[in-house]
Amino acid sequence: xxxxxxxxxxxxxxxxxxxxxxxxxxxxxxxxxxxxxxxxxxxxxxxxxxxxxxxxxxxxxxxxxxxxxxxxxxxxxxxxxxxxxxxxxxxxxxxxxxxxxxxxxxxxxxxxxxxxxxxxxxxxxxxxxxxxxxxxxxxxxxxxxxxxxxxxxxxxxxxxxx
Length: 162
Ligand SMILES: [Zn+2]
Known about the structure:
By secondary structure, this protein is α/β, with parallel strands linked by helices. It has one domain (19-157): Carbonic anhydrase (Beta-carbonic Anhydrase, Chain A). Helices cover 33% and strands 20% of the residues. It contains four helices and five strands. The protein has helices spanning 30-41, 67-83, 108-113, 119-136, and strands spanning 19-24, 49-53, 88-94, 142-150, 156-160. Strand 4 and strand 5 (156-160) form a beta hairpin. 27% of the residues are buried. The chain binds zinc ion. Zinc ion binds next to loops.
């Protein structure tokens, strides 16, 4: 048998999770998201299920433009909620998300609908639609959404959107 590359300091602890967090995989915002979850929501690492993908929960709104993304995402959410009997879903988007500036995923035609709206406004509106899309899955969960943005003092603040 090959030698292990690493062995954890602590023994394996299998805590129960009742919460699914859906957020962007951005390496910049992820540490602050984890801090928010621990300090504000009261969820330490290992106490929640995490679905961190580029663009975060935005995949739930891609049913028309990238239906396969939306389909896979819905399957992940349903799988986790049903398998782990989760009760609560927390969706988080963040400012300066690269996903939103890439027109392979957010086509120009969609951007045009939003003339006069800032990207932040668009993301916040998306969050409210995401909450609805999660509710439409018909799962026995409560849903809430937050927007993470830079504060004037260069910190990251989380604002509840829905
Ligand atoms: Zn992002």
